[in-house]
Amino acid sequence: MKIFITGSEGFIGKPLCTALRELGHAVTGYDHSPAALNDVNQINGDILDYDHLAASIQDETDLIIHLAAEHKDEGPTDEDYYRVNETGTLHIVKAAEEKNITKGMFFSTVGVYGNQTYPNESAELSPINVYGASKVAAEKIVEEWVTASDERSAVIVRPTAVYGPENRANICRLLKQGSTGMFIMPGSGNHHKSIIFLDNAVASCIFLMDHITTGFQAFNLVDEPSLSLNELIALIRTASGKKGAVAHLPIFLLNCLLPFYRLLQIIRNQPKSLSFSRLKKITAQSHFDGSKIRGLGFVQPVSNEDGIRKTIAWNDTNGWD
Q1: Does 291 score more than 60 pLDDT?
Q2: Cα 40-45-48 angle, rounded to 5 deg
Q3: Are 46 and 52 within 8 A, CB to CB?
Q4: What average pLDDT does the segment 185-201 reach?
Q5: Does the bond joining 34 to the residue before it have cis omega, within 30 degrees of 0?
Q6: What is the reported pTM?
Q7: Spatial distance between the Cα atoms of 265 and 70, rounded to a whole number of angstroms
Q8: Residues 6 or more apart from 211 whose CB is under 8 A from it?
């Protein structure tokens, strides 16, 4: 199969490209970051540069996988999220129509559900932040593209927090903090924190490629079993061999102490490791129904325990910072 992938140098895109090539697919990557070793199958380009994007997609491409997105918690403006996630997706479907490509896989997020508890793919989309809202806008563009022709098909994948080696996002910070002698647990720790290991996310995408049917479909990507924050920290501490105490502090107290903690970091010239947005994210319920893809026969290749152990081992070897 001839496949075009945006965001191909990203955390998910890079191993997905590798896995697809190992399976014999002809993969062309497109990313704003240049590839290492002058990879001839990797094109350096901006998703917002439509002419360059369209010219980079080969004729007779069978499938577009759209990963490129603005997703950082802090830094991007509201305009940045919509410009990359909404307009970028509009460029993709426009190029697909121009190139007569009828199949697509588009990465969204479980953030489109907002604060709902254990939503499945048919739940109402009600995001609570700009990132989620920009992804809802992108999904609508894809759905409109699909419904405009009976020959088109698209799969929307909505992964929860993806973690693994080389990842430096929120889950990595949680793994680092959980691997120390003492961990400060915000609140009771009984709320769920759905996550997915990188290898399982890649395996899910490859599995779904064989289940793209005419029309519009959506799938949550979640590792099982679901874990509470207490259970997740327990797995992290077992994998890292740590036995220090876990101190539970009320969330309101942490919110009060956070400005003083940040001031101490500034005085010590330390990087910003905690913020109100990150505290809000770690204390929020994050529990999603991933049974739909499993109903098609998908089995995650890596367990929670092994995923956490592999990620900690990689960071121990390569450094956490």
Answers
A1: yes
A2: 155
A3: yes
A4: 88
A5: no
A6: 0.88
A7: 27
A8: 155, 296
35 burial class (0-12, 13-18, 19+ CB within 10 angstroms)? middle
Q: How many residues does this entry show for the chain?
A: 321
Contact predicate 288/224, CB 8 Å: no
Element (H, E) at 81: helix 78-81
89: alpha, beta or left, given left = phi > 0 and alpha = psi -120 to 50? alpha
- Token representation of residue 275: 């913020």
Q: How far apart are CA 70 and CA 284, in angstroms?
A: 22
Tokens in use for 178? 């959980």
Structure tokens at 75: 């830094």
In angstroms, rounded to a whole number, what is the distance separating the alpha carbons of residues 268 and 8? 37
Alpha helices in 100-248 (DSSP H): 130-147, 170-178, 198-209, 229-240
Q: Which residues contact 20 (CB under 8 A, 6 or more apart)?
A: 3, 5, 27, 206
Element (H, E) at 317: helix 304-318
